[in-house]
Design goal:
mainly alpha
Length: about 250
């Protein structure tokens, strides 16, 4: 990888992607720690990658805000027909969720943080609503396929959970169990869980699963968004080893 510089950056990243993919197809135990030990990514390639920054790479909330903006712009630009792997997209979405939640803890101004969170919820809404809002004729003639049913379920559940944490305009969302819920989405989530398309996922959506994130308001708030995400994606994609690390 160190010999791949300049115009060869994209080739290097493709090789890196293939190497990581091959590692996770092994039948033995896998762990991201091994990858960190075995692979070294040149600085030129690092600039191409949108990953969750560490405190050593981000010198200010503004720096992290810029990365959040780049990451969200990229994901929003991805069309369903180009998604050949839900898992690959979900790994990137997990980074977006992480940054969207963390911005409230690192000093990004609330108006800017709320706007970033709205960008996220708008995209989540689009993931599942584009297909549902289209008429029969539009569905027959549309050239691009919708996101998978699993992706739509994840997106709708996350959007409802974030909406339940919303507060009055100009205020940050709920980040404590002591903060009252003013926008309950329990009934809306129950409606999603009862949809015929989601019938096979009742163990995931039931009282001991995702539903608990909506009903147990003393326990769950915005800071638990990543927990809900992991609870959904791991059983929905049980054969994807890389998702087990979330």
């Amino acid at each position: 990888m160190l010999s791949l510089r300049g115009k060869h950056t994209f080739t290097g990243l493709k090789l890196l992607d293939e190497a990581i993919a091959a590692y996770f197809t092994r039948n033995t135990n896998v762990d991201w720690t091994d990858i960190q030990k075995l692979l070294e990514v040149p600085s030129g390639c690092q600039q191409w990658l949108y990953t969750t920054p560490s405190n050593s790479t981000c010198k200010s909330p503004a720096d992290e805000g810029k990365i959040l903006k780049k990451l969200s712009d990229y994901i929003i630009s991805v069309k369903p027909k180009y998604v050949v792997s839900d898992t690959a997209l979900l790994i990137v979405v997990e980074k977006w969720l992480t940054l969207a939640v963390r911005q409230y803890a690192i000093g990004i101004p609330v108006p800017a943080a709320n706007e970033n969170l709205t960008t996220l919820t708008n995209w989540l809404h689009r993931v599942y609503s584009d297909e549902k809002s289209a008429g029969i004729l539009s569905r027959l003639i549309r050239r691009s396929a919708p996101f998978s049913q699993k992706m739509q379920l994840i997106a709708e559940t996350l959007e409802l959970f974030i909406a339940q944490q919303s507060s009055v305009p100009g205020r940050p969302p709920r980040r404590s169990g002591d903060t009252p819920v003013t926008n309950s989405k329990i009934e809306a989530f129950k409606s999603v869980a009862q949809q015929k398309a989601n019938a096979e996922y009742q163990n995931i959506l039931g009282p001991h699963g995702a539903a608990n994130f909506f009903t147990n308001v003393r326990r769950y708030h915005l800071d638990n968004l990543l927990e809900l995400f992991a609870l959904l994606v791991k059983p929905l994609y049980p054969d994807e080893k890389i998702l087990r690390t979330l």
